[in-house]
Design brief:
The chain has 16 helices and 31 strands. By secondary structure, it is of the alpha+beta class. Among the domains are: 91 residues, Phosphatidylinositol 3-kinase Catalytic Subunit, Chain A, domain 1 (Ubiquitin-like (UB roll), Roll); 159 residues, Phosphatidylinositol 3-kinase Catalytic Subunit, Chain A, domain 1 (Ubiquitin-like (UB roll), Roll), CATH 3.10.20.90. 17% of the residues are buried.
C-alpha cells in the first residue's frame, strides 16, 4: 500500500536508469551520500521523506575475502524473531536421606559446549549442595550408567541421551565418605512380589537402581542392617498412628530384629539376594547352578563380604557385585511407590493469590522476546543459499557470500515489521505466536544506527524530475568534465558545507557542552504511535490496530467498525505484527491549508443547474 501511495505521489515523472554504487571502503562517507542521491533520481515523494531509510549492506566472499559494500534504501525494517526456546536438562535430584523427596529440576544451560562440571555448579546453587557431593547417572530399573568424565561430557549430551533414559543427580551419603579407601560400591536392585496372569509369583523391579558403599570386612548382617536403615523411613511414614509411636522409639537394631530376625524366614519383610553372573551358560559363582535366579544372602555375624562373597567371584573384571533388595511381606499400609515420588521445588516456594499473580507476571516477562533482540538478530551475518549466490568479480564466479545488514540512517517515521510467518509446509512453518516486548516510549536505536542524521539531511540538491531537466543537467556535467577546475563536489550543489541540524540534534549538542564536551553520548529515541495486530494463523486471520491520538496522547483500539479507548500498558500483545515509531527529536509540520473561496459565477451556475434538475427531473429521460 505504501509503495502504491509513493508511486502516486512520486514527483519524478521520467525515471532515469541508475546503476548500483559499490564500494570496498567502509569508511568512505561519500558513497552513502551518492547512493541516496541516485535513489532520489527515481523517487521523490512525501513517503520518501518520512518513511525511507538507508541500509548498509556488506557482502564478503568466503574464498578471497573480497568486501562489497552498498547503501540501499528501505521503507520497512523487517526483523526476524529469534528462537528463544530455552535449552535445558530435566532430571531428578536424589538426596542421600531418602526421607526427603526427590526434586524434579529443569536447569538451563547457555551453550552446547557447557561441560557437566560447570552444569553441576549451577545445580549445586539450586539445591544448596557442594558440587562434589553428588554425581550424574542414567538409571533404569535394571541398568546404571554413571557420568564419569565431567569435563568432556556436555550438558547437551545429557539432554540428548535423556530422551531414552531417565537422568538422576544422586547425592553421596556423608557416612560413605568416612569409609576407608578399600570400600566397595554395590548396586541395589529393588524388587517386590507380584504375580503373572497364571498366578505364578515372581520378583519384579519397581524403581530405579540405588547404590551403597560397604567395607570389605563387613559381615552380611551389617550389610542387611545398613540396607534396612536406608529404607526404614517407609515404616516411619506409613505405619498406622497406633503402631507408629511405639515404632519410632525403637533403635535401628531393635527395629531390624522386629521385621527380620524375630520372624520366620517365610514371613520376613525383606531379603537380600546376590545377583548371579549366569546367563544360562555359566555356573553361578555363589551356588554353582547354571539356572540360578539370584542367591539369597544369609544374614550372619560370622560371614564376611570379602571372605564369603567376594572371594567366590572368579572374573572380577567382567562382574561387579550387585544385590537385589526384595520386599516380600511388608504391611499393606506401606506404600513402596513412595520411592518413585518427587516434588517440584518451584511450586513449593510460594502460595497465595498475590504471589501467584506476581509469578504469572514474571513468567510472562521472561517468556517475552525483546525487540532489541530481534534487531540484533537482523544484524547477524548469514551465508547466502545455493539459489541466491553472489558473483565475485575477483574470483570470477558465483559464491555463497556472507551477508551482513546494518541500519546506516533511520527515517523520521520508522516502520518495524515483525516476521511472524514462516514459509513451507513442514515442521517450523506457520506463525510465531511469541510475545515481542517493545517499548511504547523511548525505543533506543543508538546501538543499531550508524548515522543519526536523517536521510533528508544529506547536503545535496534534489535531482531533476523530467527528461528535459535531466538532459540539461547531463549537458552541464559534460561541460564541467571538459574543465576539471569547474567541477563541484556533490555536497556543494545545494550551497551548504554540512548537513542542516534539527532542533533535537542541536539540543543534544547543547547538553553535551553543558555536561562537559560530550561526556554523555546522544541517543536516538523513538516513540510508538501505531500498531497493526494479526490474530489467527497462516491461512486465515483478523486484523486490528492500535493508534495514538497526537492531540491528547490517548490510545484507541480499532476493530472493524468498533473503536474503543485502550490503556497504553495493554497495547503490547503477542498479536503485534507491524509497529509504527516516530523519531522523538523530529516534529512533523502539518501544512496550512488556506480556505478556498468559490467564485460567485461558479456558485450561481451550480445552484441554478441543481435547481433546474430538481424541478423537472423527467425532462432528462
Amino acid at each position: 500500500m505504501l509503495d502504491g501511495l509513493h508511486e502516486d505521489l512520486n514527483r519524478v515523472k521520467d525515471k532515469p536508469f541508475v546503476e548500483t554504487l559499490e564500494s570496498e571502503d567502509s569508511t568512505d562517507a561519500n558513497i552513502p551520500k551518492i547512493s541516496w542521491y541516485n535513489h532520489l533520481k527515481r523517487n521523490q515523494s512525501v513517503i520518501v521523506d518520512l518513511l525511507h531509510g538507508q541500509y548498509k549492506s556488506q557482502l564478503t566472499c568466503p574464498e578471497c575475502n573480497r568486501l562489497s559494500i552498498t547503501y540501499d534504501p528501505f521503507m520497512t525494517l523487517s526483523v526476524p524473531i529469534p528462537n528463544k526456546k530455552q535449552k535445558d536438562v530435566e532430571f531428578f535430584f536424589i538426596f542421600s536421606d531418602l526421607k526427603q523427596k526427590a526434586f524434579k529440576l529443569v536447569v538451563p544451560y547457555p551453550n552446547n559446549d557447557y561441560s557437566v562440571r560447570k552444569f553441576k555448579q549451577d545445580v549445586a546453587k539450586i539445591v544448596n549442595k557442594d558440587p562434589n557431593s553428588f554425581y550424574f547417572a542414567f538409571l533404569t530399573q535394571i541398568t546404571r550408567e554413571i557420568i564419569a568424565d565431567e569435563d568432556k561430557v556436555t550438558a547437551k549430551d545429557l539432554r540428548k541421551k535423556r530422551k531414552t533414559k531417565n537422568l538422576f543427580a544422586i547425592e553421596r551419603n556423608p557416612e560413605d565418605l568416612k569409609l576407608s579407601a578399600k570400600k566397595i560400591e554395590v548396586e541395589i536392585l529393588c524388587t517386590r512380589k507380584t504375580t503373572d496372569y497364571f498366578g505364578k509369583v515372581f520378583r519384579k523391579p519397581f524403581t530405579f537402581k540405588r547404590s551403597m558403599y560397604f567395607e570389605p570386612h563387613y559381615t552380611t548382617r551389617q550389610v542387611y542392617l545398613k540396607v534396612f536403615k536406608t529404607f526404614r523411613f517407609l515404616y516411619d511414614e506409613y505405619l498406622p498412628e497406633a503402631e507408629k509411636q511405639r515404632w519410632l522409639k525403637l533403635s535401628d537394631e531393635e527395629a531390624f530384629k522386629q521385621i527380620y530376625e524375630s520372624k520366620e524366614p517365610a514371613r520376613r519383610h525383606l531379603k537380600l539376594f546376590l545377583v548371579t553372573n549366569t546367563r544360562g551358560y555359566e555356573n553361578c559363582y555363589f551356588c554353582g547352578d547354571r539356572r540360578c535366579e539370584n542367591c539369597e544372602l544369609e544374614c550372619s555375624d560370622k560371614k564376611r563380604l570379602d571372605e564369603d562373597v567376594i572371594s567366590k567371584i572368579k572374573d572380577k573384571k567382567d562382574y561387579d557385585l550387585e544385590l537385589e533388595l526384595y520386599f516380600d511381606n511388608i504391611p499393606d499400609e506401606i506404600e513402596l511407590g513412595r520411592l518413585n515420588t518427587c516434588v517440584d521445588p518451584k511450586k513449593m516456594e510460594k502460595e497465595g493469590e498475590e504471589s501467584k499473580k506476581k509469578e504469572a507476571e514474571e513468567e510472562k516477562k521472561e517468556a517475552g522476546i525483546q525487540i532489541y533482540d530481534c534487531i540484533r538478530q537482523f544484524e547477524q551475518p548469514e551465508q547466502l543459499g545455493e539459489d541466491n549466490m553472489w558473483y565475485c568479480s575477483k574470483c570470477k564466479k558465483h559464491q555463497r557470500a556472507f551477508k551482513k545488514m546494518e541500519i546506516y540512517k533511520a527515517p523520521p517515521v520508522l516502520v518495524i515489521h515483525l516476521k511472524r510467518f514462516k514459509s513451507g509446509s513442514g515442521y517450523g512453518s506457520g506463525k510465531i505466536q511469541a510475545l515481542i516486548d517493545f517499548p511504547t516510549r523511548n525505543l533506543d536505536l543508538s546501538e543499531f544506527v550508524t548515522n543519526f542524521e536523517l536521510p533528508m539531511d544529506y547536503p545535496i540538491q534534489l535531482p531533476p524530475r523530467t527528461k528535459e531537466e535531466q538532459q540539461a543537467e547531463k549537458e552541464r556535467e559534460q561541460a564541467k568534465a571538459k574543465d576539471p577546475s569547474a567541477q563541484e563536489p556533490l555536497s556543494k550543489k545545494a550551497g551548504m558545507n554540512e548537513p542542516p541540524k534539527m532542533q533535537g540534534d542541536q539540543a543534544l549538542d547543547d547538553e553535551e557542552e553543558k555536561d562537559g564536551k560530550g561526556a554523555n553520548k546522544p541517543r536516538l529515541l523513538y516513540d510508538l504511535f501505531g500498531i497493526v495486530n494479526h490474530y489467527g494463523s497462516t491461512g486465515f486471520g483478523h486484523y486490528t490496530a492500535y493508534a495514538k491520538n497526537y492531540r491528547d496522547n490517548k490510545w484507541f483500539c480499532f476493530d472493524d467498525s468498533s473503536v474503543r479507548e485502550e490503556n497504553e500498558s495493554s497495547v503490547c500483545t503477542p498479536a503485534a505484527y507491524v509497529l509504527f515509531y516516530k523519531r522523538k527529536d523530529w516534529e512533523f509540520k502539518q501544512p496550512e491549508f488556506a480556505p478556498m473561496e468559490a467564485e460567485p459565477s461558479t456558485v450561481n451556475t451550480t445552484v441554478n443547474n441543481s435547481m433546474n434538475e430538481s424541478q423537472d427531473p423527467l425532462q432528462r429521460v
